[in-house]
Design goal:
The complex is a heterodimer. By secondary structure, chain A is mainly alpha-helical. Helices cover about 65% and strands about 5% of the residues of chain A. Chain A has 20 helices and 3 strands. Helix content of chain B is about 75%, strand content about 0%. By secondary structure, chain B is an all-alpha fold. Classes of the chains: A mainly alpha, B mainly alpha.
Amino acid sequence: MTDQTASQPSSKHGSLLAVDARTKKRNAAETRFKAYGIGALLIGLFFLVTLLTAIVSNGSTAFSQTYISLDVTLNAEKLDPNGTGDRDEIAKVTTLGYTQIIAEAVANTMAANEIESPLPAGALPLMVSASAAAQIRDTVLADPSLVGQTVTFNVLASSRVDGYLKGRVTRESLARDRNLGPPHLDIVDQMLDAGVVEKRWNLAFITGADASESRPEQAGIGVSMLGSFFMMLVVLFLSLPIGVAASIYLEEFAPQNKFTDFIEVNISNLAAVPSIVFGILGLAIFIQIMHLPQSAPLVGGLVLTLMTLPTIIISTRASLKSVPPSIRDAALGVGASKMQSVFHHVLPLAMPGILTGTIIGLAQALGETAPLLLIGMVGFIASNYPDGLASGFLDPNSAMPAQIYEWAKRADPAYYERAWGGIIVLLVFLMTMNIIAILLRRRFERRW
Amino acid sequence: MSALWIALIVLALAAGGYVLGRKRALASVGGNTRHLHSLPSYYGANVAMMAAVPALILLVIWLILQPMVLNRMVAPMIGSVAAGEAGEMSLVMSDVRRVADGLDAAVDQGVLSGAEARDMQSDSTDVRATLSNVGVALGSDVTAETLSAAQRYRALSSTGSLLMTVVVLAVALAGAITATLRTHRDFRARNVVEHGMRVLLIGAACFAILTTLGIVLSLIFNTVKFFNLYPASDYFFGLTWSPSFGGGSSLGILPLLWGTLYISVIALAVAVPIGLFAAIYLSEYATPRIRAFAKPMLEVLAGIPTIVYGLFALLTVGPLLVSVFGEGGFAGVGWMQGGTAVMTAGLVMGIMLIPFVSSLSDDIINAVPQTMRDGSLGLGATKSETVRQVVLPAALPGIVGAILLAASRAIGETMIVVLGAGAAAKLSLNPFEAMTTVTAKIVSQLTGDADFSSPEALVAFALGMTLFVITLGLNIFALWIVRKYREQYE
């Protein structure tokens, strides 16, 4: 009997040592399945790498900018015809009056470097940014004694010249451009050899204000960074105390009843509500009903607070839960009240976890765009630094992600580079916050 | 006095009250704390709490209510003239507020004296020029009604602010004094303070309810307003979406829903296989080292803000797809006209959802007990057979829940579709055509200087309501599936 059954399979299915067709098939399926898994993982990582490469390769150019150094003769006849040297008198000359001076300066600089130009003198200032006139005027107004002298200014080159140096603009693409033509680029090439034109580190992009549609070379993300900063202040100071208080109640005090269940259902639902709906809430409640100022970081902060609260509550509850009951029992045992045991013992022990959760919630809020669109933090030019705290909270401003959106919407491709650069700045902030959160967790995390 | 100063004064009062209450408690027992019912600091905290909490709550409520009440009171003054439509009314009212603010600014900067601002007449002075001098730009000239309404608004609001200062400070003082008077050696200060703190904690927990209530009410009220202006049947069953602010627009939601669903389906078609297989590999096959590296890397994708994905869709993926599927492209098919298309948005949204699907599925697969795998492997199944026939069926309800959550995320996603999907509402099957979604239209209908009482702006609230109901429904459905079909092991 045993002999028979032992010998039968070997005759039917062959030897155990030789792999039969069925086993081969199963093993092949196994290999395939594993390959699918590796493939999926690699595709995911490939997407990550592509995304980061796109960001860095497109955005890093925003951090350098082309400047032209011009020897500007501040013609006294034009700027101060009466020779008074008086500031108010000089201030009467508008930026329009400086364009002529810039045209002369460009021509002079070219002559000094022996650059021939086929172009009429009037077409030359197109290589210089429209911001140059204001820059020179401000310098003159700050120091009226400069009038009549020749001063060397480093002015921004126009965005097309900048784009040419960065490889974005080519002679072909300029063929039908009204602002700048291929002859200009020949001049730029010669100026580059002469060292008059050069690319430099662009601090103004990080600290500066947004500029009008026609001057992408001047636009910076600094003002909207301040807007984001004020919003984050609001979010931090509202969502941390409210979130922690709510979690303490739910985790430590709340009785098991319908009301507590209701609160918990609300929190988990809010965590899944699309962010744009919070924007609608902000628009309807804060702006339409309460008449808070539109586009103000205060309103943005309030909306983002409501949006971040569920995140903070969920992570705070998790870290309160991880404090072992023995701590509470010991505190109660030596005569502390329930409130004292929570505030003197449980809360301090849960603090690292709470802070980590808060930082991650803040990082999430910092990158959020959709609700800000609805409360009007886009569509205008954030060109003024807020003066003082109250104006920082209440005056119209933008926020970093909203500013990036605004740039992405503009027609001039030079703004795309700014948008990518803005993303780099935003991601640097997010990365710093996440690293702080990870370090906090590593440093203070306790295993009970 | 500004609200900030009032708040600071109240806080100072509270701090002073703390010191006073503590001192008084100590004095009542001659410095021997053992005879006190509570620790001395609780007596101080009691006074501080009584001084600050009611006053600050009153301050916040006052700040919220004052503009509403003022609007009510000023509105009748211009009601007869400019009214006609509710929309006109709100525009005029915002003008009134601007003029009032401008007058305030003028007085602050010394351009006008207080009396001048009060008695200014629109026919004798050029209000618009005066105000633009102080940096308040007005869209149109100021009518007599607007000016007088603004002056009244100003007068009322300064009375209101004065009243607020007096009342809030009085409440703070009264609280501090009552609490100080009650401070005595037998006063159960700790119980009172702890009770107060508990009430505050409950109040904080109720914020979640208030937020939900705020969302629901703001959506419902405006949606009802919309349906009063526009027939509901046309909204729900209309096949065209062409808003025009001049009137006569057709606002059918079906093309938007179609675009939303199409994009979400493509996104899920990208995210679910990749996310699921990645999760299976990470939890069943990967060595701890690979897992420790790859899992956080995938989660980086989840931490990237959606605006970044939007830009990626608009500037990288869109042009890339056009160069393949566009006119004269790589594939030579010419299906794609522009960079913004359903495919662009769907693909990028799929990338965004990969970590969402993978980390949720990973948790669920890890929760399947090891004994089940061991049993299956012991019977001679290969690893992949174990995964397919034992682990996945056990984890299925959780995975379906995760996919539904991802779907609700996809439907509610805004920035990617605003930048990547295009603006034209179409009912088309071609995934390389530009279409638009519910969220993108909410943004476009509510940004800009739309008049909030026209059906073209109000439709955004109806769209928001639809979106809210759909995502809420999906979330509840997901939770229900997980609960109903979950296998309980051990």
